[in-house]
Amino acid sequence: MSIRSNIATVTADLARWGLRSVLHRNGGALPGKLALSIDPELVADLAGLLDASVVITGTNGKTTTTNLIADAVAASGAVCVCNRAGNNMETGITGTLLEANSNRRRTAGKRRVGVFECDELYTVRILPRLKPTYFVLLNLFRDQLDRYGEIDHTQDVIAQALALSPTTTLIFNADDPLCASIADRLPNPSLPFGLDGPTGGEASHIAESRFCAHCNAPLEYDYIQYGQLGSYHCPACGWRRPDLASGASNVHLTSTGYSFELKAQQDGSSQTAPLSTRYNGLYMVYNITAAWTAAWVLDALDGDSSRFQGVLDTYVPTGGRMTRWQAKGRIVATDLAKNPVGFDRQIQQVKASGGKLMAFYLNDADADGRDVSWIWDVDFECLSAPGVHAFAGGSRAHDLQVRLKYAGIDASLVNSIGDVIDTLAGEDVGEVLHAVANYTAFPPIVKELEGLGDVVTGDAKTVSIDVTAIHDDDDTQHSDKMLDLGRPLRIVHLYPDALNLYGDGGNAIILERRCRWRGIPVEVDDVHMGDVLDLSTADIVLIGGGADRDQLAVANELRHQRDELQGYVEDDGVVLAICGSYQLLGRSYYMGDEKVEGLGIIAADTVRGEGRLTGNVAVKTDIADAPFVGFENHGGRTVLDACEHPLGTSVLEGTGNNGQDGSEGCLHRNLVGTYLHGPALSKNPELADWLITRALERRGRGGNIQARELLPLAMLDDACEHAAHEAAMKLLG
């Protein structure tokens, strides 16, 4: 080690001693932070401590997979160097290595294996210095888009990290096309893992890119597990899911969890292990498959792969995840979910267990991501049923309450889990309370439960039911009588599977519900890639925002059907276009350094800008007395021609279309283009009703007397929406 690295190491040791001996606190990331400020290359020097190492990353499952691998390594007799506390950025990993360095004499002569959880964006700082033996890539889903950016950016960062560590073997989830496409880019040796065959019953509507990484054609699936995970192939170029080197087969959900068989082969050797876990959720099978594969190649199973069952039997989740508590006479099941796919998996677990009592908590701290639009991608609708008692808490409780309202669930606002338990005092004590919270909302719940009761040992029986059954809304606000409109109001949702990056599908839910609550017959038609676009009977057209690759595919599709869309707009057809699709309706926009031809329906161009415009925004308009509120996150700068009218004026300087002229969005006839996410209509019911009103007015001008008689629209109880709007305005200061 160099003089600089020795000084950094001593400084870290002193800091750790002071924190633990004087302040009686865990060392945390501070020793690593101090050491890196002295020697930024310290990880490279400390890497020599290890005989082998593995780094684990991915959107969901990092902590669980890391701890399972660490347990297997420790059970093998090796010294395990692991950041079990979850400090997964460079400072935390450095601190873990520094502590191992201070213990090197005590562990001399033993095999040392490093097992490190790593944040996706920090892989490019860790891998080139640590040069791990293996790198586990679990999955890639939308998560904290205001921090990570679009998934394409995360893919690029991980690919760059691996390119700078060419001897590292990539263990990747082959069922995820986003992970497989990274493996395709690189010469690194690789081991694809996944689930070998359909498991049935867990597919959901949530998906990231389902487009080919090679030619951008839509992928076709033989089966889907959930999200975009499954067996896929491209009918255009032939790209397909790689053959599995390690896979789980014969996956069965029982009353006590999952059972399955793992098989792996590499360099002529093979292993087979029948395994079972008491923890439910198909995501857990993926985590176990990844952990078992890593333990196998790390020689942590001593040639007997079935030894991993002992690891599973003794595994205890950290930090209150997947935990049951006995508090004030009631069982409380807690779990963490920090993005749409993770939350949706927990929702499906609540439904599968027949849960009736539930509390959801949502924060928007920096670690959570400021944009909470993603809650509209979670299938809360599947929980709507008679007897459900729901609560919403956290700094964005009002947003959650609105989301649950449109899912047909009446939720009460609460401050703490103790308040929830007290409120449920009159409910059957045999009913489990399910508490699900995002990243920073979760630890306070766990801390409170630690003071209220104890962890419940033993397994809780889970009832297995079909979670894919079509849900029949128990909508208490549904009008008793549907009015005669001749034909239903037709809402056309363009490419919802490709353009739904920021929960924009919630706009369709909101419009549909607000029509039904008034007794207005309505239908929502989804138009997918390859479908013929027929807007002859359309009343409202919705287009969301998407990742670059998805948006490019849609742009190519819509150019062939431009005349249909332009004719509809010029006939005063009602349109709501969000973010990327707003840009697409202009003459041109940029995707990276490439200028992309738009549809030219509005007179505008979107040019490149420095950095992204990201944050909570408000827009003064002539449509409503109060400003519209939402969240913007865009890199392009849109400039309207003088002939176009902006939707409104940004309340905050430096936001809106381009951050310069104060304009936000575009109002072209009955077309609204905007950068507002949230989704746009959730906290702005006046905008939703404006769209419905304009659609009915247009129908009335066409001779539909019934449509004219529905105006002005009947008033609705928008107390929840207005409370969420008021809370959003407070965020602006």
What would you note in describing this structure?
The chain is α/β, with parallel strands linked by helices. The chain is 32% helix and 24% strand. It is built from 22 helices and 30 strands. The strands form six sheets. A nine-stranded mixed beta sheet has the order 2-3-1-4-5-6-9-10-11, with helices on both faces. Strands 16-15-14-17-13-12-18 form a seven-stranded mixed beta sheet, with helices on both faces. A six-stranded mixed beta sheet has the order 20-19-21-22-30-29. Helix 2 crosses helix 5 (90-102). The protein starts with a helix and ends with a helix.
Describe, in short, the structure shown.
The protein is of the alpha/beta class and 733 residues long.
Number of helices: 22
Form type: globular
Number of strands: 30
Radius of gyration: 27 Å
| Proportion of residues in extended strands | 15-25%
Helix/strand-derived category reads alpha/beta
Subunit arrangement of the protein:
single chain
Spatial order of the strands in the main sheet?
2-3-1-4-5-6-9-10-11
Calculate the mean pLDDT score and round it: 91
Low-confidence parts lasting 5 or more residues at pLDDT below 50? Answer: 459-476
Give me the secondary-structure topology.
Elements: H1 3-22, H2 30-38, H3 42-46, E1 52-57, H4 62-75, E2 79-82, H5 90-102, E3 112-117, H6 123-130, E4 134-137, H7 145-148, H8 151-163, E5 169-173, H9 177-185, E6 190-195, E7 220-226, E8 229-233, E9 246-254, E10 257-266, E11 269-277, H10 282-297, H11 308-314, E12 323-327, E13 330-336, H12 340-352, E14 357-361, E15 389-393, H13 397-406, E16 411-413, H14 417-423, E17 433-437, H15 442-452, E18 453-455, E19 489-494, H16 506-517, E20 522-527, E21 540-543, H17 548-559, H18 562-570, E22 574-578, H19 580-584, E23 588-591, E24 594-597, E25 604-620, E26 628-640, E27 648-650, E28 663-664, E29 666-668, E30 671-674, H20 685-701, H21 705-709, H22 719-731
Parallel strand pairs: 1-3, 1-4, 2-3, 4-5, 5-6, 6-9, 13-17, 14-15, 14-17, 15-16, 19-20, 19-21, 21-22, 22-30
Antiparallel strand pairs: 7-8, 9-10, 10-11, 12-13, 12-18, 23-24, 25-26, 25-27, 27-28, 29-30
Helix pairs in contact: 1-2, 2-5, 4-10, 6-8, 8-9, 13-22
